[in-house]
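Now for one protein, fold included:
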Amino acid sequence: MITFTALLIFIVGINIGSFLNAIIWRLHTKEGFLRGRSYCPKCKTSIRARDLVPLLSYALLRGRCRDCQKHIDWQYPLVELITGVLFVITYLKFSLSEEFIVYAIYVSFLIVVFVFDLRHYLILDRVMLPAGIVALFGSLILGVGFFNILIGIIIGGGFFFLQYVLSRGKWIGGGDIRLGLVMGLMLGWEKLLAALFVSYLIGSVAGISLVLWKQKKWQSRLPFGVFLTTATFVTLVWGEVLINWYLDLVG
């Protein structure tokens, strides 16, 4: 049953999602994060405050800019909605705790990486550096052991660095290496292994499906950060369940 607190967290989540949309756009345009008001990408008109209400404004405007009547990109309401939903899922798992606060911040970074990699096939250092710093402090706050963090960094970064070297940059990009490092910081080495398994499973299913639907070819590139960030969230919330399931399976 959805409680009042969960509803409140959803509202906070969709507002944060709106802020993440602004960050994603300004990362793409290389504008300053604190520079000026939000504006329509099509007609450049500043967006009125009444048109910035997450989800509701999009619905009332029927997905069109009030001034130029051009379609508003699907990204904006989806990011708002997904951020709200993921915040609620995290709350339902961890209640109002340190884990919830830390993981909600992680989720915000993961959404930015997911969307930017999906749209532009890039994982930016401008995102990964602060994400890594936040993840380090977050893990220390949650009591993740230093050795656990260190091994996670070595596995996360080393795994993708090895692929990068062996393929001469054809299989993955440098951004995947840095994302692997951040995953190690967020998850520790045990959950990281589970996340890597989940990411390759999701990536395989998605890749084969896209080929069968003739949306991609076998040699086509895929934004692997999309699968890594998805797997990271899954493992943050259900990592212990996955690990216990695997141990029961092999035991």
Summary: Residues 97-251 form one domain. The chain has a mean pLDDT of 90. The chain has two domains: 1-96, 97-251.
